[in-house]
Every structure is written in structure tokens, then in C-alpha cells.
Queue: 2 jobs
Job 1
Amino acid sequence: MTFDFTDLTPGDRYKLLTGVIVPRPIAFVTSQDEQGRVNAAPFSYFNTMGADPPVVVIGPGDRGPDRPKDTARNIAATRQFVVNLVDEALVERMNLAATDFPPEVSEVDALGLATAPSVRLDVPRLADAPASLECTEVVTLTIGHTRMIVGQVHYLHIRDDLIDPERLYVRTDRLHLVGRMQGHGYVRTRDRFELERLSYAEWLAREAERARTGSES
Ligand SMILES: Cc1cc2nc3c(=O)[nH]c(=O)nc-3n(C[C@H](O)[C@H](O)[C@H](O)COP(=O)(O)O)c2cc1C
């Protein structure tokens, strides 16, 4: 089947895009309003887009015309946020934080989320997150009703048992992050496999071998 996006409602486009672009990582974002109230909310429109400079993007959609979500409003005001990654232990609290609490209610207080101070930012990180990224807003792109907040990463905090500091090798096998699937679905990251990458010379050698042996593999 083929779908023409010009003929679809935004809700239907959302269903299709978030059905095929899976799994999506989850940014459990802490931000702070001008009164210092700490907000926490998850966003699966999220990824890293480069390392030089180190950049992440999150996409908080507006609740309606000129009604940004608290996270977007806070970042516009303070230019600071922390991306906390979500593991299996944190996933239920992450889901509760997506409740549409009014702006004056701090999810951190309502849910009793433990926080830890950031190094560079006023806004704290979540103490129970396995890893957190301290970010400042570089730019916010608004295309129609789609908002993309681009942040530069300044610090990574990661639990000691999750990294080999000599090699900067993250123990993703111990990290147990969750990803978002369609609707209310999630996925664990325990099912890993590896593929070796070939150089072009290795590719040519492989093709020559296949031609010589008539192998299909
Ligand atoms: C796993 C998960 C992922 C979500 N991803 C997004 C997202 O990418 N963009 C968005 O606007 N809302 C997303 N939401 C909904 C927001 O978390 C929710 O609207 C929240 O109340 C926003 O909080 P805030 O107003 O405090 O910023 C997601 C919810 C869940 C549970």
C-alpha cells in the first residue's frame, strides 16, 4: 500500500510515522521554569544528530496554537535542559510523568523523583537515570506546528558500572534502556547482535571469492 501524506490528517500521519519509525529512544527531559520549579516529561521525538559539536534534538509538539508544552516553554525561557535516559527501572515513572499536569505542578514533586545537581546547569538531572546529558539550547526550529529543539551537550553523567572509562566503552548490555514503539508500546534493548563492516577492499575480495566458488553467501 502507498499513502499520500497530503491526503491525511496530522493524527493519521502521526500514526503511520510513529508506527514505522521504531524503536525510538526516549528523552526524559528535566527543565526548570523561571520560579525554579523542576519539570520532567518524556519525548520520543529524540535523537543525537552529531558529535562535533555534540548535538541532540527533541520534539515537543504544542498542545494547541500558541500553547507550547511546559518543557518547550521552560527551555525558551532558560535555554537549559537535561536529557535523562530511561531504563527498565525508570520506565513506569517516565510514563506517569507524561500525565498532563498543569504548569504549576512539578512532576518531580508529584512523583517524588530524586534529583541530583548538574555541573553546568541550574536545572537538575534525575538521580535514578542510568545516564543524563546536560544540554543548552542552540536553536529551536519551528516548521508549521512541529518544533525541534536543538541542544548542545556539555556533560554526560553515567552510572559507574555502565562504562569502561579507559576505552570510553558504554556497557549497553547492562544499560537496559527502553525504546518507544507505536502507541503505548515499548521495547527492551536486550536482544543485540553485531555485524562487521567491510572496507571496499574486503568487499572486492568477497565478490571475487563468490565468483570463484559460485557461492550465494
Ligand atoms: C514515551 C513517551 C514519549 C513521548 N514523546 C513525546 C514527543 O516526542 N513529543 C511530544 O510532544 N510529546 C510526547 N509525549 C507526551 C508528553 O510527555 C506529554 O505531553 C507531557 O505531558 C508533556 O509535559 P510538559 O508539558 O511538562 O512538557 C510522550 C509521552 C510518552 C509516554
Job 2
Amino acid sequence: MENETNIESEYIHSFTLEEQQRLIDQALFLEPYHHAGLDFNGCRTILEVGCGVAAQMSVLVRRWPRAKIIGVDRSEAQIARARQTLATPLKEGRAELHLAAGDRLPFDDASFESACVFWVFEHVTEPLPILRDIWRVLKPGAPFATTEVFDKGLYMYPRLPGTMTYFQAFTALQAEFGGDPDIGVRMPGLLAQAGFVDVTTTDVSPTLDARMVDPQARRSFLNYFQTLLLSGADALRARNRVDGSLIALVKQEFAQLWADPGAVFSYGAKQTRGRKPGP
Ligand SMILES: C[S@@+](CC[C@H](N)C(=O)[O-])C[C@H]1O[C@@H](n2cnc3c(N)ncnc32)[C@H](O)[C@@H]1O
């Protein structure tokens, strides 16, 4: 198993309690955007690779009551927190957790009836070995879905110069750590290279515009994205890529967006689906 300190030093987010809670809030906030299109009907097992603190697994447990949900993550800290998040489903045998790397899954070939990944490939240098190992452990015909960022798709109106500067620093650091902040757009080709068939991709970018009139909904939406961007602030400040005044400006610009009824904020995300060939 990789050394936890090395993993952490090359991860734009972190493994703090605050960040772990952010992942749980994030899965719930983004559920309408990113779980609605998943079809695991009739699947008795759903594997999630890079399950983190089991934020998505909790949603899967609720949405797919007939399936057993199996999570894998390479970080001990995340798996430890996942054990707390999933205490009841683990006790009931509705969920399982494994500490392992995504390209060395501790399962036999053709073990699972479906699989999914959320927000993991953007952080890894070599996505193909992980996709190939997921392909290996799926049964013939099993569906697979992955939801990933396309950071170049970030759009703001009016343009927020401070937020754009901050975001460029954020994506540049993620790329320096070996990740690809635009990997969403590469996923269909990567699935095809790994052997998946019937590969399709859908734009699932959460978007705020004048159709969102409820002030509370607008506030929650913008709070979520402000928190997401600032989840990289510690890593960026530690490397002198941003300073306190830029972070203050980002917060000020988000407050302006909330008050502007004509504002648009769209964060690029792509959901790619395919299946292992077979019946
Ligand atoms: C941004 S978090 C997403 C967690 C979860 N999928 C969610 O949406 O809440 C990324 C997770 O991927 C895990 N991860 C990164 N590379 C991995 C790899 N090669 N194998 C297994 N897990 C990995 C990290 O430890 C982290 O928990």
C-alpha cells in the first residue's frame, strides 16, 4: 500500500475532517445532477472505485436498495471515515469496504454486476490501468459509469477575474500533481481503449442561471462551488500560488453572483457510460 503521506502531498484536496465532510455534502448536493442518469436496474452488486469516505456509496445504498455496494479506496484515512459513514449498511451486509489501489483490485475476474467511479480519474496519472482492472472484475454485459470534471468548461457571467485567476492556479496545481482537470472529455476514448462498448457521454454540468429563482437554492448552489474551489486553498497557499487577498476576492465575487439575477455559473462535468461486452 502506498504511503499515506505521499498520497496526501500529491492531492489537491486533503484528508482533513473538514474535507471528508465536504465530500459527504458534495455527494448529496450533486445527487440530482449525477445519480439521476445511472441505471443499475437489476444489478445485485455495484462496485465504486475511489469511494473516499463513502459519500456516493451512501447515496447508492439508498437509491439501489436491492444491490450490495462495494467500495474500494487506496487511502486508509478515507476508508476509516467510510466505515463510520456506512456503519449501519456494513452491519446489515448491504455494503463492503476494501483498502486497495484501483489498478490492483482484490477481486476475482467477473465478480461484479456493475461499477462506477466519481471524481477519481482527474487525480491519477494513469487512468487506463484502473479502467482495465474494473473491466476485468465486471461480469460480461455489466454497465459502468464514470463522472468526471471538465474544468475548461467553467463558465461565469459576468466574468469574475479573481475567481478565474484562482481557478487557473487550482487546475495548474492539480495537473502538476499528475492529474488531468479536463479528463471528463477524454473518458469516452479511455473506456473504448479499456475494452468497454456502447460508450456514450452526457454533459452533466451543474448550472445556475435566471431559471433558479429561489434565493435559498441560489445560495446553496454558490456556497457549494465556493467551498469546492476553496478546498484547494491550503495546498495552493502552502506553495505560494495564491494569497489571502485573492481568496478574499473570490468570496466577494461569489457574493456578487448571488445578488445578480442575470448571473450564470456553470461547472463542467461529464458522465460517461459503457458496458463490458457480453450478453
Ligand atoms: C475526490 S475523492 C472522491 C471520492 C468519492 N468518489 C466521492 O465522490 O465522494 C477521490 C478519491 O479517490 C481516491 N483515489 C485516488 N487515486 C486512487 C487509486 N489509484 N486507487 C484507489 N483510490 C484512489 C482518493 O484516495 C480519494 O478518496
